Amino acid sequence: MRSLSYKYLVANFFESLPFDLVDGMMNRCELFIILLSDRFRKFYHTYEYLEDEILIKFFYSMDLDEYQTLTTMAKKYGIDFFYVKYRDIFLDAIKAAIIAYMEDIEPSDFYGGYDIKDLLNENMIFNGCYKELNKEPVVQTICEWIKDDVEQEVVGMIENIPQDILKDIEILRSTIDIDTNDVDNFVESHFEPPELDYEPHEQDYDYGNISEMSILDCIFK
Fold first, then answer.
1. Domain tally for the chain?
2. Which of 49, 69, 104 is the last residue of a domain?
3. Cystine design at 93: which of 54, 59, 72, 182 (Cβ 3.0–4.6 Å)?
4. Are 113 and 97 part of one and the same domain?
5. Is the domain of 98 the same as that of 112?
């Protein structure tokens, strides 16, 4: 809906490009692109509100999820001015967002997709008395699986960036930070005893008036 009564709101939005959701439905990246689309820019003259300082802060404040939204919406509405006018700043900012994303990985977000039964069986070794798990290669393998998934995830999140910028973005696998202690605990959880459906009791039988010592006397008599 376009109305002159909203013009000051549009101006206020471009003055700060705030983080807040709009009516709980639209984030700032969606609104940013929509207000610059043909439908609204002609009515509100939105390009007149763009200021270098605000836009630069905007680019450096976004996380990778926001960049995914921004670039997807930009492609949808054919908006690419910031890829040209602010190319170097955009490139530097999104590289920083990618690194921040890869350094803040929650391994548990990926466990649900892994069936590690075969991996565990392959790494059981006989210690001379019984079989036990050689845990280190299991943990390393799961960490590599997570890194594979993170790489694919990041590639998908930046796929709408123009190729001439995309070619200058390198996804460094070594940047992906996996908490090996978390993975270790995940592996250990497969060996925890199942929870009992009842509470164990010290005395399962009713021996009436017979004392504990009397019972032991009968056994060892």
1. 2
2. 104
3. 59
4. no
5. no
Shared domain check, 78 and 60: yes
Q: Which residues contact 122 (CB under 8 A, 6 or more apart)?
A: none
Residue type for 194, please? P
Do 123 and 133 form a contact (C-beta atoms < 8 A)? yes
Alpha-carbon distances of 4 from 43, 50, 116, 125, rounded to whole Å = 9, 19, 60, 75
- Residue 97 in contact with residue 60, Cβ under 8 Å? no
Q: Backbone phi, then psi, for 156, in 5-degree steps?
A: -70, -30
Spell out the SS3 assignment of 99-162.
HHHHCCCCCHHHHCCCCCHHHHHHCEEECCCCEEECHHHHHHHHHHHHHHHHHHHHHHHCCCCC
Range of the domain at 109: 105-191
Polymer length in residues for the chain:
221
Same domain, 86 and 110: no
What is the three-class DSSP state of 165? helix
Based on the fold, state whether residues 110 and 187 are members of the same structural domain: yes
Alpha-carbon distance 206 to 62, whole Å? 68
Q: Rounded to two decimals, what is the model's pTM? A: 0.80
DSSP state of 37: S
